[in-house]
Amino acid sequence: MKHPPCKKVIAAWSESLEHSIPLTLRAQVWYHLCFCGPCRRCIRQILAIRDLLRSMFDTTETQNAAPLPAARKEKIRAAMQAARKTI
Q1: DSSP at 68
Q2: Which of 44, 43, 52, 46 is nearest to 73 (CA)?
Q3: What is the signed CA dihedral for 79, 82, 84, 86, rounded to 10 degrees?
Q4: CA distance 71 to 63
Q5: Is residue 20 left, alpha or beta, with left meaning phi > 0 and alpha meaning psi from -120 to 50?
Q6: Is the CB of residue 13 less than 8 Å from the CB of residue 43?
Q7: Which value, in Å, is the radius of gyration of the alpha carbons in the chain?
Q8: Model confidence, pTM
Q9: Taking a C-beta distance cutoff of 8 angstroms, is the pair 38, 7 a contact?
Q10: In 10 A of CB 86, how many CB atoms?
Q11: What is the pLDDT along the chain (87 residues), one digit of tens a residue?
Q12: How far apart are CA 37 and CA 39, in angstroms?
């Protein structure tokens, strides 16, 4: 199986989060991720950022919400630092 370049793998993986990608491309991405630690790390970081953003922008909050509390900012900062250490 052809081994696609990292840039193409990350782009295809990102696309697969929103839309269906062809089976052949999905197989190439999976194959690449089996052997490429940096791409797996990049994907973990993207997922961590996505989860963090989801937790920040809870759908139950109103648009005129109060500023982010200091404790919440610290929690975000700690999560970002923890994610950086896994790199």
Answers
A1: P
A2: 52
A3: -140
A4: 20
A5: beta
A6: yes
A7: 17
A8: 0.58
A9: no
A10: 9
A11: 566 789 999 999 999 988 899 999 999 999 999 999 999 999 999 999 988 888 887 665 555 567 788 898 899 988 888 887 765
A12: 5
Cα 45 to its chain centre, rounded Å, is 5
d(CA 25, CA 84): 29
**Does the residue 58 lie in any domain?**
yes
Residue 1 placed within a domain: no
Show the tokens assigned to 68. 């982010």
Residue indicated by tokens 């973990």: 44
Cα 16–chain centre separation: 12
Query: Do the domain assignments include residue 30?
Result: yes
Total domain count for the chain? 1
Domain boundaries, position 69:
6-85
Instruction: Please tell me the predicted confidence (pLDDT) of residue 18.
Output: 87
Q: How far apart are CA 16 and CA 41, in angstroms?
A: 17
Indicate whether 75 belongs to any domain: yes
